[in-house]
Amino acid sequence: METYLLDWANLLLRWLHLITGIAWIGASFYFVMLDTSLKPPKKPEDAKRGVFGELWAVHGGGFYCSQKFLTGPKGEPLSDDLHWSKWEAYTTWMSGFALLVVVYWIGASSYLIDNQVMALTPAAAIGISIAVLVAGWVVYDILCRNLIGKDSLLAALVFVFVMIANWALHQVFSARGAYIHVGAMLGTMMAANVFFHIIPGQKRMVDQIRKGQEVDTKPGIVGKQRSVHNTYFTLPVLFIMISNHYPMTYASKHGWLILAVLMLAGVLIRQFFVLRHRGEFKLWLPAAGSALIALLMVVMAPKAVDAGGAPVSFAQVKHVIDSRCVACHAAQPSWEGFAQPPKGVVLESAEQIGQHVAKIAETVGNGYMPLGNLTHITDDERTLIATWAAQGARLAD
User: Which residues sit opposite 62 in a β-bridge?
Assistant: First the structure.
């Protein structure tokens, strides 16, 4: 029953995380588009009112005119009816953190720890996980505070820091656990930007406007800087959110480098859209991002397995699958923590194995399965399955 309830918690938290993530990212994308598309106000009276820029748009059967005031309107009170974009970010982070707890902390032995990478106790792995989230934010925040106005240098140093963390996590956790912690670290940076800088800065500016004081523009500058960072983090984080479905990306000794290339591709593609809103059409940006992905596809292509040598019997393969895989991939799994077979894949009969030959060969061959090698499959057994698949995967001897 406990495992069943955890599965429901996983499902509902993942659903909530997706919904709130869409709301947050959608709002972020919209405001980046709005901010980079602003034109000087056409009416002189609007400029006198403090309008910095405006955008006319058509949507949903109507027309909209959005205006931006850097320090509030001049000669008139600030509206009491202000919309704040914050709970989308907070709920996305909280649901993501809860999902991290349910999947990677409670299931640390299966999803977070790989003894072939580093032998850890669940408590130690969870402690490192917490430290990564906290340290990631602290280092990033220190860099931002000390490099105001040096955006290019800051961007380069943040990228280097994230790549170092990416490499280091792959020396500690399972490949899947390392990937998700890079995403969790970036997501924590994004939400913390909103909580510690963007919203407090906006509140200070609102308070100064309402009191008739001179408005300090620094919180707005900092908030803009952090919002820009958040938009570039978005595509890499979205990729990491879906990456657990594609072990070909992380189940490799070079998984950290694959993630680095894919993150860089995401940043380049996002930059294209940011500049496109300004009227700059830099086609080389998505072309470069696409070229990086294409290069990965070529480099990561699986090598042909030598089908020569002695024929591998199905009995040999069935013995390996029974001893290394069926504990989880059974109609009623015997491995603790699994109420149902992962992804509904059952490998108890020849017919069931035959339905999943290609996936078995891929995931066992690249080291992704068994998870964390909990059942201690050997390299020889991996080679045996790969050779059997290359020889035509006979299901009878």
Answer: 59
pLDDT band for position 101 (50/70/90)? Answer: very high
Tokens describing residue 43 = 């009416």
- 58-84 CB burial, b ≥16 within 10 A, e <16: eeeeeeeeeeeeebbeeeeeeeeeeee
Contact 24, 90 (CB under 8 A): no
pLDDT of residue 336: 78
CA-based nearest residue to 176, from 388, 363, 40: 363
| Nearest in space to 171 (alpha carbons), one of 238, 119, 105, 108 | 119
- Rounded to whole angstroms, how far apart are CA atoms 159 and 317? 45
* Whole-angstrom distance, CA of residue 58 vs CA of residue 276: 18
Give the chain's largest Cα–Cα span. 89
Mean pLDDT of 110-127: 92
Please say whether the beta carbons of 318 and 350 come within 8 A: yes
Q: For the chain, what are the domain ranges? A: 86-299, 314-390
The helices-and-strands tally (H runs, E runs) of the chain is 15, 2
